[in-house]
Write a structure and sequence with these properties.
A 4-stranded antiparallel beta sheet has the order 1-2-3-4. It has 89 residues and is an alpha+beta fold. The chain is built from 3 helices and 4 strands, in the order ααββββα. Strand 2 and strand 3 form a beta hairpin. Keywords: Membrane, Transmembrane, Transmembrane helix.
Length: 89
């Protein structure tokens, strides 16, 4: 079994440095990157919360806010909350 030579150590350190630099860039530019990835989608998940074995989702579809309550059993319930501007004010 070969020992860790200096050139292999340098390669590993450079690779780890590149990974850390990439992580720093992604965390620093998270908002810009997420907007580029998501693009102009019609349906956007704003928030999801687990509640008593089910989940509550806050969605935005074509400028309308929707609340979807989905339990483990049964059909999900959808409630229209209004437009995004009405909900924020």
């Amino acid at each position: 079994m070969e020992t860790l030579s200096p050139d292999r150590l340098i390669i590993v350190l450079l690779f780890l440095g590149a990974l850390l630099a990439l992580r720093y860039y992604v965390t620093r530019n998270r908002d810009v990157l997420s907007k580029k990835i998501s693009g102009d989608r019609r349906l956007k998940l704003c928030e999801a919360l687990p509640i008593n074995g089910g989940r509550v989702y806050l969605l935005e579809a074509d400028g309308e806010r929707l609340c979807v309550v989905a339990g483990g059993k049964g059909a999900p319930t959808v409630v229209q909350l209004g437009t995004a501007q009405e909900v924020q004010s």
